[in-house]
Amino acid sequence: MKYLQSDDLFNYKRRVSSVVHVGGLSLGGDNPVRVQSMANTNTNDIEPSVEQAMRIVAAGGELVRFTAQGVREAESLKLIRRSLSDKGCDVPLVADIHFNPAAAEVAAQYVEKVRVNPGNFVDRVHTLQRFDYTDEEYQQELEKIKNRLLPLLRICREHHTALRIGVNHGSLSDRILSRYGDTPQGMVESCMEFLRVCRENDFNDVVISIKASNTVVMVQTVRLLAATMEKEGMRYPLHLGVTEAGDGEDGRVKSALGIGALLADGIGDTVRVSLSEAPECEIPVARKLVDYITKRAGHVKISAKDSGMVDPFRFARRNTFKVDRIGEGALPVVIMSSAVSSPVLEPDYCLENGRLGGGPLYEVSRLEDLRSDLSPLKFLQLSYPDYTEAVRNALDERTVIVLTTDHPNGVGEQRAFFHALLADGVRNPVVLKRSYEDSCLEDLQIKAAADLGVFFIDGLGDGLWIEAPNVPQSQLLSLSFGILQGSRVRVSKTEYISCPSCGRTLFDLQATIARIKEKTSHLKGLKIGIMGCIVNGPGEMADADYGYVGSAKGKVNLYKGQTCVEKLIPESEAVERLIDLIKRNGDWK
Ligand code: SF4
Predict the structure, then answer these.
(1) Model confidence pLDDT, tens digit, residues 303-336
(2) Distance CA 233, CA 236 (A)
(3) Mutate to test the pocket of ligand 1, among 69, 171, 535 (most ligand atoms within 8 A of CB)
(4) Distance CA 74, CA 98 (A)
(5) What DSSP designation does 471 have?
(6) What angle do CA 452, 458, 462 make, to 5 degrees?
């Protein structure tokens, strides 16, 4: 199955999607990729909600989403809409609905778009207690969806309101889990069931999203969704996002990795970067990412052939042999241009006097020297246009390839190289190298994660080397390891899965994250979920080892894996109790 509309994996081209009107904003088709954020106020607090929406718009946000837990919160959207319009702000508003079709029907009368989650719009979210649906029962459940969705579609049509069908990994229904399990297929089917109802009823102002906090799952699932829609003749626009990405470097890197991998293939019509920070902080990050990738349109053509040997829907590491500590199943390495270390991170190789870890570094102009060098470890630096028969013949089993690029579409060109190697059966390990002049750390985080992450997500690449002379080397080291961790190929620090907060959040999320990080950042490899509410938190912290979840005002539930082990702890004690829980389970170091 193809996930791109063309056969061209190498040259940047936007996916052709239909145009959806969200108030005065057109999305999809040839329109620019739109950036958006989500407010974290309670909609019943009208003025704070309006002010936050205005801050998001001032930062460049083109859509603003609010969560509406119930009918009362949905009714409040009318006042927010009116107040914003009175202030001359016509930014389209989106109501985010979970569990409550009645709230969706109210909100659809006042806002420009309503988001529903197929995992909980009709079904209760999974109880993991039922796995025995007969075909007939399954069909009856589909009828239930239709009967519940049609009234909403009628209201949307009447009020010119668009719909987002937004699937989240971690909130699939028992019915979907019974047939497909917790898989990309399950998430895609959950979305397709709703889409088919929309199409049968000729309702086409629909935008789709499938999100996950696991970047590999997110990228593969959206690819599968694009492929499935194409097969069924649908071209609805796509909204992209990585959920629970966290804050600071982690949040930026994870988001740029997942969203960037898809945008680089021309997939995506609107983007939300979810950060556990003030909502307006998300907009500049989204803007930079979108601009960085879309400006490569019309680039110099890359001539290459799809080897057919990279599965876009399933992770498999490219088959290589090992040279020193690089390749053949070894953890991808980090190379630095100069010696640097931090208390917890150590690069694998540093460039010193033209050598990496003692191995000489050759350019293609010195192929003869490479050939005659009998060192057990040698590096050959080249780019895709350098890859000739002479180069291929010079590659022996002691050579690691360092792959550079200066093409405006570096992802396309470096991908072309991997396909050429695969087609030729060349098994030398490859370290991906990229160079940047940026001095702004955030710019570098976004660009490097978007450029490099996709290769690790696809199982290509045995290491990375980021050259950025205008950024402190210690920050570059952290970024390099962050990209490998965000791509889920090498764990070097504690992983935090934290929600971006919304109107349901029950505690000060940013302060809590900071407190938990301060105490636990030495627990390498441990995954800690920090979620604002129990409505969506437990499901969406996915594969966290421990969870800290708001359960009532001032109260917290603690989780070990997916099991709630302590309930309604006063917030003032909760961080210490989390640490005790980690200690009791032997995971404290
Ligand atoms: S976990 Fe709860 S509080 Fe956090 S963003 Fe999701 S719904 Fe909002």
Answers:
(1) 999 999 999 999 999 999 999 999 998 999 999 9
(2) 10
(3) 535
(4) 12
(5) S
(6) 60
Could you tell me the distance, in angstroms and rounded to a whole number, from the CA of residue 244 to the centre of ligand 1? 9
Q: What ligand 1 atom has the least distance to the C-alpha of 532?
A: 3
Which residue's structure tokens are 């982690």? 250
Instruction: Judge if pTM exceeds 0.85.
Output: yes
Radius of gyration of the chain (CA): 24
Q: Are 530 and 512 in contact (CB under 8 A)?
A: yes
- Asked whether the predicted pLDDT for residue 572 surpasses 80, the reply is yes
CA 246 → CA 213, 253, 277, 278, 516, distances in Å? 9, 10, 8, 12, 13
Inter-residue contact 471 to 441 (CB < 8 Å): yes
Q: Is the Cβ atom of 504 under 6 angstroms away from ligand 1?
A: yes
d(C-alpha 303, C-alpha 560), whole Å? 51
Q: Distance between CA atoms of 126 and 589, rounded to whole angstroms?
A: 34
Mean pLDDT of 187-193: 95
The CA distance from 259 to 253, in Å, is 10
506 lines ligand 1 (CB under 6 A): no
Write the residue with the smallest CA distance to atom 6 of ligand 1: 536
What pLDDT does 127 receive?
61
pLDDT grade for 130, boundaries at 50, 70 and 90 = low
CB 347 within 8 A of CB 336: yes
Residue 14 DSSP label: P
Q: From the DSSP assignment, how many helices (H) and strands (E) are in the chain?
A: 17, 23
| The total number of residues written for the chain in this structure | 589
Our mutation pick for probing the ligand 1 site, out of 100, 276, 508, 531, counting the most ligand atoms within 8 A of Cβ, is 531
What are the DSSP calls for 193-248, one per residue? HHHHHHHHTT---EEEEEEBSSHHHHHHHHHHHHHHHHHTT----EEE-BTTB-SH
Residue 497 predicted with pLDDT over 90: yes
- 349, 341 Cβ separation under 8 angstroms: no
Q: Mind giving me the DSSP string for 124-175?
A: PSP-S------HHHHHHHHHHHHHHHHHHHHHHHHHT-EEEEEEETT---HH
Q: What is the mean pLDDT of residues 428-443?
A: 98
3-state secondary structure of 566: strand
DSSP letters spanning 421-460 = HHHHT----EEEEEE-----HHHHHHHHHHHHHHHHHTT-
379 within 8 A of 371, measured Cβ to Cβ: no
Taking the CA of residue 506 as reference, the ligand 1 atom at the shortest distance is 3
* CA–CA distances in Å: residue 158 to residues 150, 154, 155, 206, 386: 12, 6, 5, 15, 59
Distance, in Å, from the CA atom of 112 to the CA atom of 120, rounded to the nearest integer, reads 21
Q: How does DSSP classify residue 15?
A: P
Q: Are 448 and 436 in contact (CB under 8 A)?
A: yes
- Six token digits for residue 199: 């199409």
